[in-house]
## 1
Amino acid sequence: MKSRTGRLTDVRALALPTPAAGYSLHWCPLTPGFGVRVTVAGARSWIAERRVNGKTVRRTLGRVEGRGAISADAARRLMVDISSELQSGIDRMQDLKAERVARVQAEAEDSLTLAAALRTYVDKKRRGKDGLALKARTKADYLAMIEAGGTSSTGKPFADGELYALADKPLARITADDIRDTYKDTLKRSQRRATYAMQVLRAVMNWHGVKVPDSPLDKATPGRDRLVLPKTAGDPTPIPPEKLGAWWRAPTAKTGREAADFYRWMLLTGARSGEVKGIVIEDIDLEGARIVLRDTKNRTDHTLLLSSQAAALVAVHAKGKKPKSKLFDITDPRKALVAINKAAETTISPHDLRATFASVAEELVSAYALKRMLNHADTGDVTGGHYIAKSEAQLRTAWQTVADCIAGAK
């Protein structure tokens, strides 16, 4: 509500009525743009209002009464100064607000721990090329690095996460020595885990814009003080050719048992363990002998063209299930793998089955057919990405050729 009264003085300002709700504005008829704001609680402040660049700008000049109060004459003089500054592009209130915001942000950043920074990172990080969020498995791997160790349900102890020692430390206070010490401690577990932890730490710091002086992870740091992280390299350990037949026969003797068939199916298709566990019945076209793997590691859908052996296993485990049901509804098939390895006298992991598929296929099909079968990205491969196409018939033949070789191994 706005009202017009006589010249505003200290006495008149104190005598203004209190509004029933919100606040009321009372303007001085002799000093345009000068007035008093009265709130429902009875608080009174001198205010100034003027048009700047086509917009109405209102500023509080000071209190009418109480601690820090100023007189009407003092408020008028201040109004002239502020009006002049606004006209020339200076806005002290906005400057103060910006300073407060910067101060609050600085304080927040100074108190932001690595644990909180990592949680924000996994929640909000998006890939630059397609805007997709991190996969759930990747998020879980990152977050496990800041978790404390403990004891499993079987009583087996497990270590703290690789970055746990820094988890509660403010991100902006992590030092170069902190990074080196964490790397050295993690190296005691394995080079791979130490490298992975440093890659995650560097990514989180870069994402939050935190620069550590002389950071051993910064390329600008002199070589003598820098951590040279080895490039990630695969360590394939496929089933030895002379034991492939024995390994295949071990789970085949248990046909119909879900865990055993799960591992056989992985070997026949070259698919990743997590992708196979995610297959639901509605993504299966048994008549067309194909399955679509959804949102794979490289964030694309991937179609598997089933060999006769793989299709037969699908038919067994898809029978009678609802569209949303899992093809292989298993939680922990590791006991079955232990039994298979024992029978075949091998020490094969689930990922080794993908390596075995690739190793067998490498001698039987073209390199570009194998690349399509494994769903590897064409990043940087101009020839494969733009010039070589593989038809469904070619790929289906390739999958069948590999499956026949595996199933026929002696």
Note: Residues 92-111 form the longest helix (20 residues).
## 2
Amino acid sequence: MKQTDYTIAALGSHSALQILKGAKDEGFRTLVICLKNKDKPYRMFKVADEVRVVNSYQELTKLDKTILIPHASLISYLGVKAVEKLKLKYFGNRKILNWEADRVKSRQWLARAKLKQPKIFEKAEAIDRPVIVKFFGAGGGKDYFIACSAVDFKAKIGRNKPRPHLIQEYIIGVPVYAHYFYSNLNQKLEIMSFDKRYETNVDGLGRISGKDQAALKNLESSYLVCGNLPLVVRESLLPEYLDIGERTVTASQAIVKGGLWGPFCLETMITDKGEIYVFEISARIVAGTNLYINGSPYTQLSYNEPMSTGRRIAREIKIAIETNQLGKILC
């Protein structure tokens, strides 16, 4: 089959604008699937050849000759099990999703890669330092909270809907989100870009003095991501970021048949000692890459043309079609 026989599709959310533009830049027909009243941006920016409005994302099962590019909203709306059962062409390895979504399993994955991770507290009674409480799933930091003791934890956890969560040591440092792409066609890892998240209301609290914060009642920190900021790391840190990315891919090949391929992100913290802690992994494109639709400083070094992560995905699919290797990148 030829490239013109395929359509690249994404749900109308998260990083769809970037994915669809990248696909069009590579010569693909594009499709965006939106819920009602969510289609206006895709009609405005004209990155989709077809805008399909649906009542439910379950209608994805009706797509034919279409390659779906996953992002966090797909996982969030449908859930891991539903995505695993979708009967359509999917870029990436669906088998890895369960290891990403389950925070216990994702720590096992990162431990196998021998990455430095924050301490986990199995019981609230063991809390002896500041911790951040994270809920399972791709929720963009929704409902995360800081606790400083068992008493503090129990007071705050009760305000949330009961669901699986992780009590993780709070590492003080600079949060850095490293964006990678691993090619299953040439077995090479690329650093695509870096970003820092802009979160509400924890970033807003930084504008209020400690004295005023103390005077405000019922003021709580939260970590809902509302945007992303560009970042370039010190060049001396690049060798270590390449190393931890390569070890992550190698470890994935030991836990799941085929391992991890395509875009992924390691969510890290750099301490004042220069140590890099890895506290989470996203096994697909992340919204921080939306900063670099025309490429990042790193892709400018690797390519002689604008190369976003979305376009890099489309380029991989294009090469696979031309070389009859689609089976290596679709699952």
Note: Residues 124-172+202-227 form one domain.
## 3
Amino acid sequence: MANNNEYQIKIVREDGIEKMSGWMNSTEQVAEALAAVHWSQGKSYWLMVRDVPNCREKILEYPIMNIPSPRYSPHNSRYLRVVGLKNRYSV
């Protein structure tokens, strides 16, 4: 079965501004794009993945580097208050 995913790289600066790559069709293209990224402190890097044949707008996000982020830390009580959850296991 062929890989039917599309990939996108998202870079988020400290001030919240996001820079997105175009959608890529293969992991080889992702590897080339990551090799061209100028990595720097104060930015978070994400890999976005969407399933093309299902035509769903469900896009999964994966952190590329181990950088603390409230979006990726559901066990942070401040994060839970912001999203309106009281139990960390309901995330």
Note: The first helix runs from residue 27 to 36.
